[in-house]
Amino acid sequence: SALTLFLTFSSLLGKVWLMLIILLRMTVVVLAGYPLYQDEQERFVCNTLQPGCSNVCYDLFSPVSHFRFWLIQTVSILLPYAAFSIYVLHKVALYIVRMHCLVHGCKGNKGLSSSKDLKELCRSAVVNRLDCSADNLSVLNFSGAYTVHLFFRTLLEAAFAAVQYFLFGFFVPERFSCYHSPCTSTVDCYISRPTEKSI
């Protein structure tokens, strides 16, 4: 029916969209973020010759490397999706075993011992599906698990955005003023390519 076709197309579109988002994010982080931030500390120039002062100021300016932070963020965002995928695979495997029992009958502990048994089950399930009563077979519904996974992904995105704001802010300043031991006075430090980093 049209509804089935729409649901199939929308779920396929959702998977393609998710992969594009993941690939786009990884591409931006690796190809744009890494070259931009690899010389981050070397180009952090402070107007002082006091030993250790530049390092202390840089640590105050950037407590965590932006690049590593974004890598951790990307991997963390993938964790709920990975958990959801494992859950779906587990439920589908149980469903296939249950169909096997319905179609062939389960005798003792006999199960699916090989991939040949699994292929045979898939063929026989298609051929014999009319023999199974509608009460025994149900359509697997993952909407609840998908909603939970989506909630956790959104929560992680919001948490990482908040952490980024508190660690770095959303704009990179051209100048960073620092006064911390071993600096003997207020020191001005200058960040390389601040406009490009903000963008």
List the helices and strands and how they pair.
Blueprint lengths: L1 H36 L7 E2 L6 H9 L4 H39 L10 H14 L14 H25 L7 E4 L8 E4 L3 H5 L1
Antiparallel strand pairs: 1-3, 2-3
Helix pairs in contact: 1-3, 3-4, 3-5
Entry keywords:
de novo design (two linked rop proteins); membrane; three-stranded antiparallel β-sheet; 199 residues
- The Rg value, from CA coordinates, equals 27 Å
Into which percentage range does the β-strand content fall?
5-15%
Q: What is the strand arrangement across the widest sheet? A: 1-3-2
Count of beta strands: 3
What's the domain count?
Answer: 1
What's the architecture in CATH terms?
Up-down Bundle
CATH topology: de novo design (two linked rop proteins)
Low-confidence stretches: 125-136
State the major sheet. 3 strands, antiparallel
The share of residues in helices is 55-70%
What characteristic shape results from the CA principal axes? elongated
CATH class descriptor name: Mainly Alpha
**Name given to the CATH homologous superfamily:** Gap junction channel protein cysteine-rich domain
Please write the string of helix (H) and strand (E) elements: HEHHHHEEH
What is the end-to-end distance?
A: 47 Å
Mean pLDDT: 78
Count of DSSP-assigned helices: 6
Helix/strand/pairing category: mainly alpha
Protein architecture, described:
One gap junction consists of a cluster of closely packed pairs of transmembrane channels, the connexons, through which materials of low MW diffuse from one cell to a neighboring cell. This is Gap junction protein. Pfam families: Connexin. The protein has 199 residues and is mainly alpha-helical. The chain has helices at residues 2-37, 53-61, 66-104, 115-128, 143-167, 194-198, and strands at residues 45-46, 175-178, 187-190. It has a single domain, classed as de novo design (two linked rop proteins), CATH 1.20.1440.80. It is built from 6 helices and 3 strands; from the N terminus they run H-E-H-H-H-H-E-E-H. The protein has a 3-stranded antiparallel β-sheet, covered by helices on one side. Helix 3 crosses helix 4.
